[in-house]
Amino acid sequence: MSSTRERPTRTSDGLRKFHRMPGSRKRWTGSSKTGPISNANRSTTFINRDLTDMMTDTQNLPPSEHTLRTLLNALPEMHDLHSSRTLSYRFLNDLCQSVTKDMFSSVEPVAREFGPFGPLQFPYLEMGAVTSLDLFGIDELIIFAFYWSNRGNYRRVADLGANIGLHSLCLARCGYEVKCFEPDPETFAKLNDNLARNGASTVDAIQAAISVEDGTTEFIRVIGNRTGSHLAGAKSDAYGALDKFTVTTQAFRRVIEWADLMKIDVEGHEAELIVATTSSDWAGVDAILEVGSPENARAIFQHLTRIGVNMFAQLGNWRRVENIAEMPTSYRDGSLFVTSKTQMPWQ
Q1: pTM score, two decimals?
Q2: CATH 3.40.50.150 for the 4-32+62-339 domain, yes or no
């Protein structure tokens, strides 16, 4: 039997489509972004489940699980209401907080139906002032809905700043090949626990930070808010009790060469990564990222504008960013989508 792989091509609107072709699988250091998705690399229980089909089997779900499934189903077609400046967003955020608190407040690993992603065990965890419930905010659910609706457009996804693994779990349930990166050893242990209890054995979890170059650097753990921990120099306003130690870094370029989608949540280090890219780097990869400060927003906007790469901001309901005033400047503004495509693929 001949081996095959899938090759991406672009349609006139810039979206990637996949076609079968002879070939072999690419390894981490290669330049091709494609490869076969074997049964070992897919969560086949979930990969053929379609959101609209699943609307027919919600009658027996508890109310919170039914509501969450409906919300995840609706978010892609509501993408023009995702801005945090809209009343719709505030309503959705309140709804999201209510249902996820009901579902994931137990410290025990109780399986709850997490929309199209299937049963999820994600026990409650305190991370300073932030808890695991904060990882289920509406901005995160918007990203999860994007992952699910784009299963035909991407194959390899890198999760930069994986924290305790919720994004990586959702990505694995979509059938993507996933590499995730988390430098904090204590957080990394929790990440591995969550991957194991949810059967995500195909996720390649790597204890490292992503930076411009391979090497080591100082990492600052913010005791009062573990989600705000960061590489030294990435933030100027670290507060409270801090732990400082050395972590391994892997070069961003290796991630770009491997992935066709990147989720980037690196707590202030995002501008340094983005400004190190060239126009050709974005020919085969997209990114969805958090921008942590006005300074980073300006640096990213100026660089990507100069090299001709498009930006689409949640703040503007995913319209293309035309000027610096339309850029997100903190997590409160939602995500930024970076791509060489002419539109953000929501449908």
Answers
A1: 0.83
A2: yes
